Fold Selenocysteine synthase.
Amino acid sequence: MIYETLGVTPIINAAGTNTRLSGGMMAPEVTAAMAEAATACVDIVALQAAASRVIAEITGAEAGIVTSGASAALLLGAAACLARLDTAAMDALPDAGERRDFVMARSQRNMYDRALRVPGGRIVEVGIPDRFSGAGVRDASAAEIAAAIGPRTAGLFWVAQPWSEPSLPELSRVAREAGVPLLVDAAAQLPPSGNLRRFIAEGADLVCFSGGKAIGGPQSSGILAGRRDLVCSALLQMLDLDLPEPQFRLPPEFAGNAAPPRLPQHGIGRSCKAGKEEIVGLLVALRRFVAESDADRTARLCAVLERVRAAAGVGEIADGAVPLLLLRPRDARAAEAVLRSERIHVGQGRLREGLLVVNPLALAERDLERLGAALGRVMRDAPG
Ligand SMILES: *Cc1c(COP(=O)(O)O)cnc(C)c1O
């Protein structure tokens, strides 16, 4: 295998599609499409226009582009909120001027929101998330967010999780009344596949998804979908624009009522580019993802976990959009370390509760027996 020629030993990834562990694996149909895409050249704007048509059909958004990941989509989405279709503003980023605040609930802060600061945004936190500290019941309210909006506000930011407050419909009402765009990080909110449409339907102006997580696309791919003028701004700030200006044509997929009066320089999002192979791979993976029903996907993933559980002789399958296998060894941290020393990576998110989590998304057929046997072993003789 190619990794062995490089002196790198493959791992068993039972932790899910983490970037740290190289994401998941792609279906043969996806890798075949990528290999074919690599054998011919195209106009990259025409390919992004084709991507926009597919993304619009599947998400219900006006337009969309493929980026180098959800983090890149966040960066580009923020850049679009900051500069809109103002070419001088695009050229000035990351110097965003006065209007550069992204207002968000303090409880939703996370390490990925760095992407909003890269193009020049500033994060304004609202609310005291008492319900997480255990000292109270409140989070941020829509009214508190509304009160924080002013002339410096470039956009609102919402991180999609089932427990996020205020709700997206409440926040989108605030955004509409204030006339500011609403950007949503939904990187890992798939499945259920209905979430591809849900956030747009609930009023988001821009939504980011990871292509390398459950969609099963290339690890370095992502989707930015939403309002045509904002997606257009994002595209212009990502493209290689090294051509004589009169030769540039914006495809109708991205041209709203207002195309920029002149072409910007290479944008703040130039490093977010997706190659033709990634764009094609993402589109094929996206079509496959929506072709499988959530019920079929859950049943398929449960069957994977069932085989691991049978080989381990222990464990409990927890239902969810992505079902998980949970194990409670005597000492979860010690057991996790033993597995890791054997190049087996399990989910670490619930070690505090004493649980090992097996996520089926990045498991290969060849992993199941060995994973199950190793889990059975640490459950029998983990130290502690
Ligand atoms: C995974 C993730 C990202 C980053 O996605 P990439 O496609 O790896 O860039 C951003 N935000 C959240 C909430 C995520 O879970």
Remarks:
- The chain has a mean pLDDT of 96.
- The chain has two domains: 2-21+293-381, 41-291.
- The pocket of pyridoxal-5'-phosphate is lined by residues 19, 69-71, 112, 185, 187-188, 210, 212, 222 (CB under 6 Å).
- The two ends are 38 Å apart (CA to CA).
